[in-house]
Fold:
Amino acid sequence: MAVAHELKKQRPDAEIIYIGQRGDKLLDIPANDPSIDATYDVWAGKLRRYADENWRQWLNVRTQSLNIRDASRLARGVGQSYLLLKKLKPDVIFTRGGFVSVPVAIAGYLNHIPYITHDSDSVPSLANRLIAPRAAKHAVALPIELYPYPRSKTIEVGVPVSDKYIPVTDELRAKYRRQIGIADDEQLVFVTGGGNGARALNQAMVANAQYLLKTFPKLHIIHIAGRMLEDETNAGYTALALGKEARRRVHVHGYINGMAAYSGAADVVITRGGATTLAEFAIQGVACLIVPSKQLGWNVKNAQILTKEGAALVLTEEQTEQPERLGRALGELLANDTKRKTLGRKMAAYAHPEAATELAELIVKVAGGKAHARSKG
Structure:
């Protein structure tokens, strides 16, 4: 979305088409975005690989059955994408590296349409590694030597984020707090597990809520649980029997618009290790506690890079399962204004606010300056 908005600024006459994965429950977001002219969906397949299961996953009948099913979906998606691109005739394809990148990029190559890959994480996605050999350019978030792409085709641009994310000053934080109804003398923890939420993170936060709300009587928790997990997470907080006053300070949402105001208003943000989310918080310069998904190697590596530089506090999923471990780590941050500011300042050093602009310029260049840009989700 950030790149689409910037493309419209640079080339108001550009036509931007979004191709997403069939069944994606978040397709309404690009469909309702004013920068997107039309949306389509095609079948795509996922290869399930779990870093914490090693060789055992290959003996899991259910996992391998789903992989076989998705292989047929991938083949079907290539056919759909080929016919769609033949009709649309785009000048360039930009791919973020999700599962649907593979059928669309293959179809793009078969239709002689150049495509650009982008890697937000420190580890390239499997999708981007599969389609890399035929890519026109590789845009990457971190120094190019970290990636297995030809140097001549690789460009470091950072991670594109919405222009709603800007450095948060004391005055801006106060403004955000007024917008979302948090008083100046209250504290706020903002929790987000990504667009679809994260059950393990949700459960860990619920398990530590009683300790936190009792220890910090002016603390509010705003928790983005994911659309499919909102009711479950709400029920988890209710089952704690927190009392009317404490329960009033817990706010659970499946999804929100305008997340920048919530994260910018927070004293501490709890998040996964996804690169886009971390890039947003880096621009804001907010203190983060990261709980990376152990199944996603790039989540873990992103978190390791930040914690090595003292830019974030990181707990593993196993650590959050220990009684009150997450709550006490959060409590130390909430009680130490200097430590929060230090984390925020070091996090801000990783910000790349011009990423969307540079990517839009690259897309126009690869398109040969033409007006039609088609985006793959």
